[in-house]
Amino acid sequence: MRRLGGLLGSRAGISTSKSLTALDEPAALQDAMASAAHIMNDDVELAEAELSKGSSPFHKLGLSTALFLRAVLGFEKEVMEKAHACLTDAEEVASEHQRRAVRDPSKAHQSKIYSAGAEYALCHAESQLMSAVVAVLNESLTESLKGFYKLRKAFATLHDISEQERRYLGRTGRGVGSSQTSVVTPGSGRETPVMSSGVLTPADSGEEEEDDFVDAKESGSAPGTPPPTYRGGPAERDMEKLSLEDTVTNRSNGGTPPTNTPIESDSALAQADQEIDFRTITSDPIDLFIHSGTALCFGLLQVLLSMIPPAFARLLSLFSFRGDREAGLRMLWSASKFKHNINGAMAGLITLGFYNGAVAFCDILSPGAVPHTRLRNLLREMRELYPGSKLWLLEEARMLGADRQVEKAIAVVDQGQSSGLKQVNALRMFERSLNCMYAHRYEECAQGFIECVGMNSWSHGMYYYLAGSCYVELYRLHKGRDPKLAEGYAAKAEEYLHTVPLHVGKKGFMGKQLPFDTFVGRKIKKWDYRAEKWGCKMVDAVGVSPVEEMAYFWSGFRRRNVEQLRTSLERLAWSEDVKANPHWERESADEKATLAMLRATCFRFLGEIPKAKATITEGVFSHDLAEVKACDHPDTWALPVAHYELAVCYWDEAGGQGGDRAMLQKCSDSLLKVERWESYELEARVGLKITTGRETLRKCGISSP
């Protein structure tokens, strides 16, 4: 068996470091967790300073978590590089401590549940998981591939730990008699999972030359025999109440992978509530750390995998992974019960972020898919425990946005002093600027995005584009009543829009240009081409309101109240006003389709479903794809997305889940058309909505052909 970490480079200095004894561990863990708590209060500098004083795997993990949070909040290259180096160090230290614990278990922490060194194996897996996320965010495809390999390795370790929990619960008779998550296949004597988490065990996980984690010895194992890797074989019948979903597919008896049956978010929450409180199983702080960390990592892993854009599905298949969002959320809810330690706190933050930033803005949802009351309670608890963090203000603002109270959301983001974490301040400014865009506060929106340029280095091209688009809107508003002021806005619009090409293409994701960079770069080329062709200023060659277009991709229409939606209709009407816009008669088919799509969306959110459907049919589907593609620098996204909008109209018309079956089938048919559509710009922005819609329909018993 090759030693773990052989592919991670030199371990100079680590092999001579002092290994923690069983007596040292609890104190080291407590110190590291107390220091890491500062992370959740936005005092990352203090956390880093205190964690740097310790050399234990727990301190290394905490320090890595601080840098990881900086990296994923800001997407800044230099921070990601620093986080990567720190995470690599944490991996190496954890694996060295784990090897020592296995070699001499008598000096290691003694657990009734886990084998010697399990706590270090978890630290290693957590470091690998965070390192994988950083690698995937890297601009290099090679680094991204390495990241997916680390995900695979982290999964194998986490799976081994969770299996030890299962075996322990089985031996102690906890949950005996449960049959919800596993059943015995007749005649085989083996259990087959019936509610899989959806994360598949890598096909050759039991044949790796490197073992990330040495499993606990079973009483019947022969000395020197390598521990078996779980393959869906015999397991205790206690799985219903375990805090981890069944994570493997039973391949041992020739069975096929189980259908990935999603469960509703409120159902996932209910299951998390019904699980055994692990604190009644053990009071050992090391064991509780292992349990909460495993739930956090498995939950995060599954949610991340479920959100990978369809374009990367083929890549993921190489690593035998697929995600189950609902199972992942259930595990995150379970982990959030331990919010007093960094594992639970991170789980709470991730849970709030996923619901408030993604699920809440989906359109085809089952009743209770977003557990509003529990989310508010979780947010309140997190604010009480970590009052210094401004991240909770962001989450509260997102909740208000989902409730169509954009003005209140802006006020909440403005509360309090600046965060000690500059990445959080950048997020606050970005969120505020988006909300100003939804509220039609264009000057504030533009100024906010320009400020973002100085606060964050991720996508300056997008920031300049959004600012320039706001000035286009201001130019249009004042052109007829204050020409001098309008010219000032026109100059700013062209200045910022022509700055966009200088910044696009400098950032990447998995070796490719960022989708928004591709989109805004093409738009500038289109408008410059039209200006030259039409003999006008660039600002007069801009087509359908780019602000309204951006609002759609950021789910802004769902955040707007009735008055704001009617204002959007007024802004869209500008395009067809031949007095204000003399170029309408020569406007291209793609712009006309985009106008109709955005207008239909406004009608839908105003509750005018028949009007929305008619607008889509007459204004969008009257143009075929070939006609749209023939336009200069065409916008092709409106056609496929219109099928999604029509599906939502059918869903609303049916009355949602439990409504008219024929109408729900029409919803499914429309959704199928966009699912089968060729690749188009910014498809990932609606991809989660489409996936959620399909899952919801499946729960209703409406399947696609």
Automatic annotation (TrEMBL):
<dbReference type="GO" id="GO:0005741">
    <property type="term" value="C:mitochondrial outer membrane"/>
</dbReference>
<comment type="function">
    <text>Inclusion body (IB) resident protein that interacts strongly with lipid droplet (LD) proteins. Involved in LD-mediated IB clearing after protein folding stress, probably by enabling access to the IBs of an LD-stored soluble sterol derivative that acts as a chaperone in inclusion clearing.</text>
</comment>
<protein>
    <recommendedName>
        <fullName>Inclusion body clearance protein IML2</fullName>
    </recommendedName>
</protein>
<dbReference type="GO" id="GO:0005829">
    <property type="term" value="C:cytosol"/>
</dbReference>
<comment type="subunit">
    <text>Interacts with lipid droplet proteins.</text>
</comment>
<dbReference type="InterPro" id="IPR019412">
    <property type="entry name" value="IML2/TPR_39"/>
</dbReference>
<dbReference type="GO" id="GO:0005634">
    <property type="term" value="C:nucleus"/>
</dbReference>
<feature type="region of interest" description="Disordered">
    <location>
        <begin position="168"/>
        <end position="236"/>
    </location>
</feature>
<dbReference type="Pfam" id="PF10300">
    <property type="entry name" value="Iml2-TPR_39"/>
</dbReference>
